[in-house]
Amino acid sequence: MKRINLSNRTIAVVGLGYVGLPLAIEYGKKYRVIGFDVFQARVDELERGEDHTKEADLVGMKQARDLFRQTGTIGLTFTSNSEELKQVNTYIVTVPTPIDRFNNPDLTPLLKASATIGKTLNQGDIVIYESTVYPGCTEEDCVPVLERESGLVFNRDFFCGYSPERINPGDKVNTLTKIRKITSGSTPEVADIVDALYNSILENGTHRAPNMKVAEAAKAVENSQRDVNISFMNELALICDRVGIDTNDVIEAAGTKWNFLKYRPGLVGGHCISVDPYYLAHKAKALGYDSQVILSGRAVNNSIAKFIADKVLKLMIQKDHKIKGAPILVLGITFKENCPDCRNTKIVDIVDELEEFGCQVDIYDPWASPQVVSHEYGKQLISTVNPDKDYAAVIACVAHDEFRQFDFARYRAKNAVIYDVKNFVDRSLVDGRL
Hints:
Layout: E1 10-14, H1 20-28, E2 32-36, H2 40-47, H3 58-71, E3 75-79, E4 90-93, H4 108-118, E5 126-129, H5 137-150, E6 159-162, E7 181-183, H6 188-199, E8 206-208, H7 212-243, H8 247-254, H9 276-286, H10 293-318, E9 327-331, H11 347-356, E10 360-364, H12 370-377, E11 393-396, H13 408-412, E12 417-420, E13 432-433
Parallel strand pairs: 1-2, 1-4, 2-3, 4-5, 5-6, 7-8, 9-10, 9-11, 11-12, 12-13
Helix pairs in contact: 1-3, 4-5, 7-9, 7-10, 10-11
């Protein structure tokens, strides 16, 4: 790759969540970086050197902030004042792209971020999007907002790039600098700059896509493929339950074949796998094609929470438990183990189903924020598990390290149903598992 001078790059990272903060920190070690977030509370938290997501390299963040204090030209600062964005020439947008209650893409955060940037955009600036979208979204939805707010012309006065985020919350191995990133640009020359910019902080390089639509599609496909594969295993779990055999036994047996992929059944929540397929299906529908495989996979995965709740209730009846008023302990509310991320968790659906039958559900999760769970889902967490409480059922929903030491035998001895969603509890102790 031809050498490109990046010394004049000043960067704003717009959105300081799971994706944006690690980027701001890494770029802040080499460039002048402004980390921007509309929530002052988030800025205040970072100013204190704290991060509730537990994803940030706090030592690296301090180094990047100290670097700016020492040099004034390189390093990291945080702000919620959009006027400060006028100092930069490169924007990286890392805001959420959720779905609404009808499973349609909700571009509100993305378009608001684009409008904010448009007001400070200057000649020659580059706006790079990392937020997950459908192919064509950057040029069809974001660029018009940038043009309207700035009065500038796309690919003449300002330019765009797209490099899909690949942050995996809780993963301490595949971190930002160690993954391979896809890059793209709105012109070949800008694609060179975008690619060089990411290569300057990555250890394993990049894959340069031929255009932004390819890069956008790749992101949606990555997670849609995983979603479809998991949906097949979830459907297998539904079948095996009717046959009366253990799904995991079947997977282990089938896994002896050299080309079998050991996907496991489970709840599919979080910020990517349960959301991205809807973006791809939305684009397909807009072009006149109704997705079959993608949406059928989504339907299967969305049915699993109800299946688990119903199965637990049936097992409780078999053990002569009264359903109405039955105390049930749910272990875990985050969407995956050993991280505090509760975004789009499907465990809430299990709780809702049990509560509809009149059960009294206690939720315990040492990783989750009680404030976040209360605000997002209206559920209250218990601060500790009462070992003397006689639960009718204990559902192990998340394989946090803390739960691997949980005394399931104590509750099993009291006739409680033990149900294992994540296949980590001693098999001799469980009454059922997914």
